[in-house]
Amino acid sequence: MVKDQKRWRLLKDLKKGKFCFLIGVDDWSIELQKSEFNSLYLLLLRINEQLLVIKDELMDEESITLELEQLPWYIHLEGKKNEWSLRFVFESQDQTRSFEMYWPIPIAQNLFYEIKNMWESMD
């Protein structure tokens, strides 16, 4: 399964082995294990739920910042109610690798929905 847009990529290839998911934005990409992708998906759902709780109370031009941490992930959402960016920090529990990702506006919203669709379509 491949989603390839102008500024981002989302790929799933379970035949690839350990690192079977790829997320890329602009000039970088990272491969994730299925368990890492699953934990990212669950954290994205949680931060989206937090946003939905406060969204109706926000004015269009009002700035927001939301943070969530659930190891191995830390997520930072910043923007306005209808346009926001996401920054991620991943600290490997196996101490094998750590990385950071940044999804700018409007890529963050697009990738969030595509990751949600990809995960929900898997067996």
From TrEMBL:
Query: Pfam families under this entry?
Result: DUF1818
Its BP terms in the Gene Ontology are:
regulation of DNA-templated transcription
Q: Which GO terms describe its molecular function?
A: DNA binding
Q: What name does this protein carry? A: DUF1818 domain-containing protein
